[in-house]
Amino acid sequence: MSLIPFIHWCLKGTLPILIVAALASVFLGAVETYIAALIGYVIDILIVSEASSLVANNWALILAFSVFLFFLRPATFFISSYLQSVVLSPGLRTLVAARLHRWTLGHAKSYFDNDFAGRIAQKEIQASNALADAVVEIIHTVLFAIATVATSFLIISSVDWRVGLLVVFWFVGFYLIMSFFLPRLKTRSAHRANAQAAATGQIVDTVSNISIVKLFANSSREDNAALAAFRVLKTSLRLYGWELIRFRTLMVLYASILFFGVMVSCVYLWIGGSASAGEVVVAGSVAMRMMMMAGWVSFSLMTIYTNLGDVEDAMKTLAVPHAMVDAKGALPLIVKNAKIDFQGVSYSYGRDMGGLCDVSLSVEAGEKVGVVGASGAGKSTLVATLLRLHDPEKGSVLIDDTNISRVTQDSLRSQISMVTQEASMFNRTARENIIYGRPEATDESVVDAAKRAGAHDFIVSLIDSHGRQGYDAFLGERGVKLSGGQRQRIALARAIIKNAPILVLDEATSALDSEVEAAIQEALSIVMEGKTVLAIAHRLSTISHMDRIVVMEEGKIVEMGTHHSLVRRKGVYAGFWARQSGGFLGVDTAA
Q1: How far apart are CA 509 and CA 121, in angstroms?
Q2: Could you tell me if 177 and 302 are in contact, meaning their C-beta atoms sit under 8 angstroms apart?
């Protein structure tokens, strides 16, 4: 997507209020220009009037000037400022931020895996703020300036049309200077924004993993990584600064040309009797206002282009096509029996090996199937394919004879409860983390789920840094205030309260000690009743009582059967069991 279509998508639906704000800014520009000319008109009146009859002969004009100064100008300023500062800026920031965030959430999981979380967040905020600022500045500055130039041309041309042409020629030169410098500033700004985002991503990555930094005593290494990012940022800031200095210095010089040219021309006309003293002041005042405005406008235009550079830079990260999209006309998945079928599924992450290779597996409704294998055997890829975190390169996955590629992703995942090896937590209350899968759940349901997951006792003892207790206590970013076992128990409670017909356990009890594991296994056995279960485990004790166990190697299913039948077969599974047996509670090792 290019910049203009991207901006159009971000601002869709805002045209009416943009037009109103633009008209207000244009009107304000005309009003402010006439204010500059007012003193010249007053001088001409003073020259031709007697002091004793000044008010009597010009009372209507004085009244008009007063209304103009004390009513029209303040009212115009208020309306324009209100539209820009209260309506447009807050509204556009939140609208664009919401649209960008909604789009970003639609990206596949691999999109987030391949970037810094902090960098993505920085790009969202960067784009929304920069685009809102650019739009407001265009209305506040560009349209205001155009109205000022047009009004100035009319006022100065009323003195002499040839002097008015100076305004036209000067404006053309102003445009050419802008056309040369602003794209350069935009490019420099994009480099600066990218360096800023990279530095932010580096910092967030370090802070997010501060426990590892401390445990491995690698503060100096992280410091060096941050310094390297800051050096790149410093270079980009300096290059941007030099470009800015050259631009603004030239504009100060160029802006003086108009004032000098208009004043010299008008004085020449006054000497020749073609212009009054008041007209010389009118033209000079307007020209001086344009000279002063040129610096402000050039700086604002630079800011606009800088913001557009920031938007374009963020666009390249955020506005990429979604890798995973719902099929056209996709319908919600309706699960009646929760039967799962993997039919010749292959997925290799775009590589020649790894992932899954022609896997066919049928899990009957209500069946509990364990999946084991060494690291890299394809277990997690199997689950990711079921959740449609990626589409198979070959084959298909069916739930109740419905191909999951033909249903909406949200409806698919709403029918699956999952507990992962690394339980993810939000920096929200314990209650909010538990009800994430079913926001409408009652407090009684939350407590019941926590008790069944063995989490209630430690939750009621929680106190956060703001004094909030129990289920109202915040858990910290990624649940850092909890132990690994506590996080997993909250994740189990979350799966319990969701109560989906399909339950996926990916090393769900790996962070628990054997005693707690045994207690939770008992709770899980109740939770699994009536559900179709797919459980990945390295600790074989957690799946030894499953209806069936699937053994995977190098992306293929190499063995399948009950725990006892696989042990008697003396194959791959029996080898795993021989290395692990005897160390777990509640398992009969005499098979």
Answers
A1: 32
A2: no
Q: Six-digit token pair at 206?
A: 């370090």
What tokens were used for 244?
Answer: 């800015």
Tokens of 276: 């009054």
Which helix (H) or strand (E) covers residue 526, if one does? helix 514-527
Options 3.40.1650.10, 3.30.413.10, 3.50.70.10, 3.40.50.300; CATH for 425-499 is: 3.40.50.300
Q: State the fold for domain 324-415+502-591.
A: Rossmann fold (3.40.50)
0.70 exceeded by pTM:
no
Quick check: 309 and 388 in contact, CB under 8 A? no
Count of beta carbons in the 10 Å neighbourhood of residue 350: 8
Please list the alpha-helical segments (H only) found in 319-329.
none
Q: Compute how many other C-beta atoms are within 10 angstroms of the C-beta atom of residue 196.
A: 20
Domains 324-415+502-591 and 425-499 share a fold: yes
3-318: CATH, from 1.20.1560.10, 2.60.120.200, 2.60.40.10, 3.40.1190.20? 1.20.1560.10
Q: Domain spans of the chain? A: 3-318, 324-415+502-591, 425-499
DSSP single-letter state for residue 86? I
Question: What's the rounded Cα separation, in Å, for the pair 88 and 83?
Answer: 6
Nearest to 222 by CA among 236, 235, 205: 205
Please name which of 98, 115, 313 lies closest in space to residue 196, comparing C-alpha atoms: 313
Above 70 in pLDDT, residue 208?
yes
Q: How far apart are CA 412 and CA 405, in angstroms?
A: 9
Q: Which residues 6+ apart lie within 8 Å of 530 measured at CB?
A: 366
User: Mean pLDDT lowest for which of 25-39, 223-237, 504-518?
Assistant: 504-518
**How is residue 129 written in tokens?**
């703020």
Query: What average pLDDT does the segment 443-457 reach?
Result: 88
- To the nearest 10 degrees (0 to 180), the angle between helices 161-208 and 144-159 is 160
- Of residues 245 and 520, more confidently modeled: 245
Q: How far apart are CA 454 and CA 492, in angstroms?
A: 9
Sheet of 416-419, strands arranged across:
416-419, 502-506, 532-536, 368-373, 548-553, 556-561
Q: Evaluate if residue 241 carries a pLDDT over 50.
A: yes
- pLDDT tier at 445 (50, 70, 90 boundaries)? very high
What sign results for the dihedral spanned by CA atoms 47, 52, 54, 57? negative
State mean pLDDT over 520-534: 78
Q: What are the residue ranges of helices labelled H in 453-507?
A: 456-459, 484-498
